[in-house]
């Protein structure tokens, strides 16, 4: 018997006497430090309460007159959950579909061992938008690159004829594919790897956007390489955009060596970079690709791998699966997330609003050339990098932006990424840029 008592809803939600609406930002931080895994360091002194519109968060901040209390303020969301909310917070089409699905259709959850009618809808919608032959639905973003990895090996043994146990997957330095053992085995980031070894074997890394390095690795070990598993634009690394011709050359090289091009579009997909999927910007088509984040419309976690019949066709019953992969409610969220991507022309919006934001960045860089070193971006996946000096600190920028009513977060010491919802209004982009200008001026 547990003595745990949970009552109420919203701010009235009370757990063993602790009412959520009574907690100050400091209280929330204390509970997280005492009861959480301490595996994040969220922005200090701010707690999101709810959303006001597609790009506005209502945040609780300490009351300047009373440390135990809080005030609520509007904050422009410059990050939209790391591109999970491309369609805008509470996108009406997706919310309506999900609510109607629960209240009228009444089909939340069944497993893969029995068919449900929305799986067909999901498969048709995803193959339609990705222009791929087959789809395997998953849940978390990281499950997409995980499955890209497994599929690469299976195809390598069964179709390419790599000797058993010798398959190599090539990744790019600076990559980010998530937090599972496979993803961190691919990573070269000490923060994600320290004391988690031994790692998954059969991985080689090359510098991103270095065609010659990839070519010489393929020439040396190509007969054992199954795939180049890579982000088309590196997101977590600080929005690293490769040369215009990089992917075309890589795609040709992969074909020459019978090596799969496996793209992780978890962050770059769903309109973010100004095309439905970033590889389309470069005129190439991967053999397999993984999506997550905005694949669930910012409402539910949905991910998938889509790809060619030759690669995904290597799967057999029992070789792959997931209880919630493509479950009815997730399927509905994803189908309508795709509908919104198409109907609301999100890729086009990303191009227009992205160009507006990059113009602002350019003005700010011209105004403060001693502070801003470089600006980078495609569509609404953008970042500015400051010179590497102690005072030009990305975290200070994030904190000061929050004080100016904008949420953004540094990716590295000197780089700050901006990736707002693709539904953001022009005036909101102007406001974000103005806040950045003020913060940079005061550094
Ligand atoms: C390119 C890429 N792949 C995979 C992931 C992992 O997604 P998730 O955190 O939803 O597991 C991320 C998350 O940021 C990502 O950017």
Commentary on this structure:
This protein is of the alpha/beta class. The chain has 3 domains: 6-77, no CATH class; 92-343, Type I PLP-dependent aspartate aminotransferase-like (Major domain) (Aspartate Aminotransferase, domain 2, 3-Layer(aba) Sandwich), CATH 3.40.640; 346-442, Alpha-Beta Complex (Aspartate Aminotransferase, domain 1), CATH 3.90.1150. 37% of the residues lie in helices and 20% in strands. The chain is built from 14 helices and 18 strands. Helix 4 packs parallel to helix 11 (328-343) and helix 12 (346-367) runs parallel beside helix 14. It is globular. It binds pyridoxal-5'-phosphate.
What's the tally of helices? 14
CATH architecture of the largest domain: 3-Layer(aba) Sandwich
What is the SS-derived class?
Answer: alpha/beta
Bound molecules: pyridoxal-5'-phosphate
Low-confidence stretches: none
> What is the CATH top level name of the largest domain?
Alpha Beta
Q: Could you give the count of β-strands?
A: 18
Distance between the termini: 56 Å
């Amino acid at each position: 018997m547990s003595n745990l008592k949970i009552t109420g809803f919203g701010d009235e939600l009370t757990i063993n006497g602790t009412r959520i609406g009574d907690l100050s930002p400091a209280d929330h931080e204390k509970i997280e430090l005492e009861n959480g895994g301490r595996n994040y360091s969220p922005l200090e002194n701010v707690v999101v309460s709810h959303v006001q519109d597609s790009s506005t968060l209502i945040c609780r901040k300490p009351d300047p007159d009373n440390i135990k209390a809080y005030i609520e303020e509007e904050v422009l969301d410059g990050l939209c959950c790391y591109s999970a909310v491309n369609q805008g917070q509470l996108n009406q089409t997706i919310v309506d579909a999900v609510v109607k699905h629960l209240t009228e259709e009444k089909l939340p959850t069944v497993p893969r061992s029995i068919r449900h009618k929305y799986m067909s809808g999901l498969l048709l919608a995803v193959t339609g938008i990705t222009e791929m032959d087959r789809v395997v639905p998953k849940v978390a973003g990281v499950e997409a690159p995980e499955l890209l990895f497994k599929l690469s090996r299976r195809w390598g043994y069964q179709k390419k004829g790599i000797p058993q146990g010798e398959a190599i997957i090539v990744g790019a330095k600076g990559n980010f594919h998530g937090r599972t053992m496979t993803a961190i085995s691919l990573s070269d980031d000490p923060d994600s790897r320290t004391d988690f070894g031994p790692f998954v074997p059969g991985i080689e890394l090359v510098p991103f956007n270095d065609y010659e390095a990839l070519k010489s690795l393929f020439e040396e070990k190509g007969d054992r390489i199954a795939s180049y598993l890579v982000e088309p634009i590196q997101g977590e690394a600080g929005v690293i955009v490769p040369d215009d011709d990089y992917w075309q050359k890589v795609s040709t090289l992969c074909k020459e060596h019978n090596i799969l091009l496996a793209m992780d579009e978890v962050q770059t997909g769903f309109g973010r970079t100004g095309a439905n999927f970033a590889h389309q910007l470069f005129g190439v088509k991967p053999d397999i690709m993984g999506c997550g984040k905005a694949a669930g419309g910012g409402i539910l976690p949905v991910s998938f791998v889509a790809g060619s019949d030759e690669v995904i066709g290597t799967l057999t019953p029992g070789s792959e699966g997931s209880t919630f992969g493509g479950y009815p409610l997730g399927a509905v969220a994803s189908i309508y997330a795709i509908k919104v991507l198409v109907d609301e022309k999100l890729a086009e919006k990303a191009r227009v609003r992205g160009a507006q934001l990059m113009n602002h960045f350019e003005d700010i860089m011209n105004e403060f050339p001693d502070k801003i070193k470089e600006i980078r971006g495609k569509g609404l996946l953008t970042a500015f990098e400051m010179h590497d000096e102690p005072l030009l600190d990305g975290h200070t920028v994030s904190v000061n932006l929050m004080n100016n009513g904008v949420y953004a977060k540094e990716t590295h010491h000197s780089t700050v990424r901006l990736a707002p919802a693709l539904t953001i209004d022009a005036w909101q982009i102007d406001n974000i840029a103005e806040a950045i200008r003020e913060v940079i001026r005061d550094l």
